[in-house]
């Protein structure tokens, strides 16, 4: 068993191919690795390893996609006036907070996942939020995050060495072992070319709402938590929205000059 290293393994995860001995270890490995246990039907297969079974799997996958898209298009709730009013209300309330919220067409994964709501009595957003920790290849999804909660408080259950969950702490030990001053929170700038991906740096001491003001959000915010002491491939624009300076070799400055918000993006 690759989780407890005590018992003989009986199960193998179809997703990450990890061996487990019991249901408890299966659940632990899913939590630690953010694994859903579902086989990745779109995983890369080299040409010399491609078999008739892979071809059959691809064919069935395309059939499933067609059925799902057709079912979504026919679903009465999706096209109901109540659903349309809800989306209009969310976009309108976000616009009132100086946030440009965009929603995707029916069938897109982010549209299906999004659980963001607006409480009219409290005049407050409860956001669907995704946290990505690229140095550990981990991501977590949060639901119902109030917009007045600071980013520092949102991250505490994940990177705080005292308050974080032991399993999560072990998974994100690179972050928990680093000083809080090394942690940077980035959000992708939307509506840019794919070969010119850039990020805004957010202020951990300010609320989620304050950080989202003036930003374009597609469905829900996705925050990237990085460490400035480690090499990164993400270009952060300056506070004035200008491109980062380049050195004599034509490359962006290294992460050490964090005050200038310069990290290079390879995508």
Automatic annotation (TrEMBL):
Q: Does the keyword Lyase apply?
A: no
**Family assignment from sequence similarity:** Belongs to the BCD1 family.
What are the record keywords, sorted?
Answer: Isopeptide bond, Metal-binding, Phosphoprotein, Ribosome biogenesis, Ubl conjugation, Zinc, Zinc-finger
Q: Which domain of life is it from?
A: Eukaryota
Describe the function of this protein.
Required for box C/D snoRNAs accumulation involved in snoRNA processing, snoRNA transport to the nucleolus and ribosome biogenesis.
The identity of this protein, by name, is: Box C/D snoRNA protein 1
Q: Which Pfam families match?
A: BCD1, zf-HIT
